[in-house]
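Why should sequence recovery work at all? Because a backbone constrains its sequence more than one might expect. Tight turns favour small or flexible residues, buried strands favour hydrophobic ones, and helices have their own preferences. The token representation captures these environments compactly. In the example below, the structure is given first.
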């Protein structure tokens, strides 16, 4: 029986080394699986990299693009004499003939009312509204008849 015990011990010892290489083989297979999983990692990294890019892009899109500046016109000053303290307005095709849209000012208090507009090139008809009365510009030499049978002053901006 003494022979049997050493055989069992030898078999047990032999079984242990065989088990260890099996674990190493499993670890080696796991390493291969990990290598196969590595190509998936760059895809995750690319997704993270791609996800970072749109965050920067909206900041650039948020800033409005500069639009081309509209063609600037000429500064035109309109003048008319009226009694000091009068309420004087400028009305014309440039403000839809609104009789109170553009007030004129008597800056020096001497009865000379002025108003300056920036108008693009073109031909403009206008009138003054002095204390509620529509008046053609007495200093303007270019007048046209309107649909009401009265005259409109004409200003041409070059």
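From this structural description, the recovered sequence reads:
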């Amino acid at each position: 029986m003494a022979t049997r015990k050493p055989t069992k011990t030898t078999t047990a010892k032999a079984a242990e080394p065989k088990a260890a290489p099996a674990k190493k083989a499993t670890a080696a297979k796991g390493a291969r699986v990990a290598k196969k999983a590595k190509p998936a990692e760059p895809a995750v990294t690319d997704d993270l990299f791609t996800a970072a890019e749109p965050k920067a892009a909206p900041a650039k899109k948020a800033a409005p693009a500069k639009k081309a500046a509209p063609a600037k016109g000429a500064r035109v000053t309109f003048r008319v004499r009226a009694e000091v303290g009068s309420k004087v307005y400028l009305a014309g095709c440039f403000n839809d003939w609104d009789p109170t849209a553009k007030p004129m000012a008597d800056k020096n208090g001497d009865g000379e009312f002025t108003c300056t507009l920036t108008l693009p090139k073109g031909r403009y008809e206008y009138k003054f509204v002095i204390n509620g009365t529509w008046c053609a510009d007495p200093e303007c030499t270019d007048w046209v008849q309107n649909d009401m049978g009265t005259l409109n002053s004409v200003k041409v901006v070059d």
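A few observations help interpret the result. Residues 9-16, 41-54 have pLDDT under 50 and may be disordered.
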